[in-house]
């Protein structure tokens, strides 16, 4: 990174953090099969990098010493086949959270006390990568899904209402947006917003931005039972 182009303000640093975080979340969720295959234990020490443009990369660590930026955990590929897959992904998520914070505060080294506090507050408004990957951040009660009716397709329309291909138990059911404030996208970890289209997976019951799973409102209308990319890939492996 060119020192002259390094993020300078709290907003710039947070934007950089958000992009890197989004890339890592994608690697460990939507692109998890591709990520898994790239982490070959027979290769040399590999690292998971999140880039500020929302992309991710598995690569060897930087050769220069000291490195341009703090480096992520080294050798993530070696434990791949020796651990339960979910535990392995959670461990990488924890290390990734630490790396994201270290990069953010490395870039913010010249911020004053109040700006550092504001930066951390902005970061802390989002769930950690570990919380997204381990699915500990989503309340089932607040998801608006009837867990007893797994065959029902539920989705949030652009006006924030819950729609379903099956009749809700209470046809007068209507929810205030505040009730969904803790509902987070299973792909990017972003918070619920009433002006965006959301869709729920009928298998794992997690919510997703339509744009994150490439489902439009029109396409959703023709789907009888929606399965997110992760659940679809699980079925394919069986």
TrEMBL record:
Residues 134-144 have a biased composition (Basic and acidic residues). One of its GO terms (molecular function) is histone binding. GO terms for biological process: chromatin organization; regulation of DNA-templated transcription. It is found in: Nucleus. This is PHD finger protein ALFIN-LIKE. The lineage of its organism: Eukaryota, Viridiplantae, Streptophyta, Embryophyta, Tracheophyta. Its main location: nucleus. Interacts with H3K4me3 and to a lesser extent with H3K4me2. The keyword Metal-binding applies. Residues 134-173 are annotated as: Disordered. SMART domains: PHD. GO terms for cellular component: nucleus. It holds the Pfam family Alfin. It comes from the Eukaryota. Histone-binding component that specifically recognizes H3 tails trimethylated on 'Lys-4' (H3K4me3), which mark transcription start sites of virtually all active genes. Residues 182-234 form the PHD-type domain. The keyword Metal-binding applies. PROSITE patterns: ZF_PHD_1 (PS01359), ZF_PHD_2 (PS50016). It comes from Zingiber officinale (Ginger). InterPro entries: Alfin, Alfin_N, PHD_AL_plant, Zinc_finger_PHD-type_CS, Znf_PHD, Znf_PHD-finger. Belongs to the Alfin family. The PHD-type zinc finger mediates the binding to H3K4me3. Keywords: Chromatin regulator, Metal-binding, Nucleus, Transcription, Transcription regulation, Zinc, Zinc-finger.
């Amino acid at each position: 990174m060119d020192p002259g182009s390094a993020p300078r303000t709290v907003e710039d640093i947070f934007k950089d953090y958000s992009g890197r975080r989004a890339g890592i979340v994608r690697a460990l969720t939507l692109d998890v099969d591709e990520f898994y295959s790239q982490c070959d234990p027979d290769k040399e020490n590999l690292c998971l990098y999140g880039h500020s443009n929302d992309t991710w990369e598995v690569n060897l660590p930087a050769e220069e010493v000291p490195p341009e930026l703090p480096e992520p955990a080294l050798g993530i590929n070696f434990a791949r086949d020796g651990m339960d897959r979910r535990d392995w992904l959670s461990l990488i998520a924890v290390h990734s959270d630490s790396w994201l914070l270290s990069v953010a505060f490395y870039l913010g080294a010249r911020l004053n006390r109040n700006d550092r506090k504001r930066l951390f507050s902005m970061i802390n408004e989002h769930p950690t990568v570990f919380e997204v990957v381990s699915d500990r951040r989503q309340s089932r009660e607040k998801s608006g899904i009837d867990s007893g009716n797994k065959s029902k397709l539920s989705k949030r329309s652009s006006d924030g209402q819950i729609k379903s291909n099956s009749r809700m138990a209470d046809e007068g059911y209507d929810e205030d947006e505040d009730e969904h404030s803790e509902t987070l996208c299973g792909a990017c970890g972003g918070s619920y917003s009433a002006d965006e289209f959301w869709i729920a997976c009928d298998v794992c019951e997690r919510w997703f931005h339509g744009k994150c799973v490439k489902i439009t409102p029109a396409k959703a209308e023709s789907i009888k039972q929606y399965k997110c990319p992760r659940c679809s890939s699980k079925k394919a492996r069986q």
